[in-house]
Specification:
five-stranded parallel beta sheet, binds 3'-deoxythymidine-5'-monophosphate, 5 strands, alpha/beta, 48% helix, globular, 214 residues, 9 helices, Rossmann fold, EC 2.7.4.9, nucleoside diphosphate kinase activity
Length: 214
Amino acid sequence: KISNAMQRGAFIVFEGCDRSGKTTQSRLLVEKLQANGVSTVHLNFPERKSSQIGQVINSYLTNSQDLPDEVIHLMFSANRWEHLNRMRKQLEAGTTLVVDRYSYSGVAYTVAKGLDLNWCYAPERGLLKPDAVFYLKTELDELAKRGSYGTERYEKLEFQRKVSSVFDCLYERESSYWHRLNASDKVEDLHQQIAQISEKLLEQVATQPLDKLT
Ligand code: 2DT
């Protein structure tokens, strides 16, 4: 092993239903890694601001524009493709990426509308594969207690129930790199579990090549 070999960053994704705690936990992880001196960038999908595709997605989600299910699905995927090169460069330069939602949200939300899973997954093939996915699994009744949903398109309990069952299917399929965690655990307990797994992961993947979704 060459001692000064380039070490890449880790690609870490958070998935789960709306209000499962992804934003809180991904922020806490970013803060923790940065405090440890790890170069870390926080991203989230959809990335609504920096591109026209992102802006169309935003107007769709806020109900100011309607689009066929297939069209918005492909736009969510395109939004990941348009950020691929920058993400790859950052990872290769040694920066760890902590990402709030990715391809799995893409699949889960569209399958929940009744579209075919394989059709939904196809445009994700070739994107970077995460080193780890933290799936914050919520009991839907618990989620309902967190107060009423907002006004965005998907923020309805019945729909979230369907999304949740697709996430469970994906977890069964992808369990080699998914970590299913109980989203009703205390914030600090969850954070400890996530930080511990991530710190090990950073060492493990530093010299491994980046992989693609197949
Ligand atoms: P946020 O509330 O986290 O901004 O998500 N979504 C997300 C999809 O339908 N497809 C996707 O590919 C992604 C990344 C989940 C906004 C909503 O967009 C949904 C919730």
